[in-house]
From TrEMBL:
Pfam families per the UniProt record, alphabetical: Dodecin
The protein's name in its UniProt record: Transporter
Gene3D superfamilies hit by this protein: Flavin-binding protein dodecin
InterPro entries noted in UniProt: Dodecin (IPR009923), Dodecin-like (IPR025543), Dodecin-like_sf (IPR036694)
Species for this entry: Desulfopila aestuarii DSM 18488
Amino acid sequence: MSESIYKIIELVGSSPVSWEQAAQNAVQSAGLSIRDLRIAEVIKLDMKLEGDQGLCYRTRLQLSFKLLAD
C-alpha cells in the first residue's frame, strides 16, 4: 500500500471582482510553481476599502498538495 504525505500552506488571493475570483487567483498562482494541488479550503473573506478606487475582495485559504517522493 502506497502512503502519501500532504503539505498545507496558507494563501491570500485578491480581486476587484469577487471573493470567488480572489480564491481562483490564489489557486492559479500557486499552481504555477506547485504541482499536484489537492484541496483549497476558504478560511476567511474580507474586503479592502481602496478609497475612490472601490473595493478589493480578499480570500484567505488553506491549500494542500501532495509531496512527491524521490
